[in-house]
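call fold(seq) -> tokens
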Amino acid sequence: MAAEIIEFPERRPQDRLVFSVARLEAMVREVERVAADDPEAGLDRLLAATERIGQQLVDLADLLLDEVTRLQAQSAFESLAEKIAETRETFDQLGGRKST
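ret:
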């Protein structure tokens, strides 16, 4: 039996960009769905989705931006992640109650 070598096509940067944008669009649809269903009950899910969107935007920045701008974007999204963590902590301290 002869072995067959299969060559996979190289992933071009354009393919990565299209894939990243598609993932970002799916995440945005998820946030819209969760927010429409029950935003109060879905706060943790919304925060998690926001974190994933931030990470996806950093991935897109790697593909599209120069080094300096990419580092600025990464710093901004690290700050966003910290704010999300603070929001979770505050929400937990309030016992998950909605403030009115």
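The chain is about 75% helix and 0% strand.
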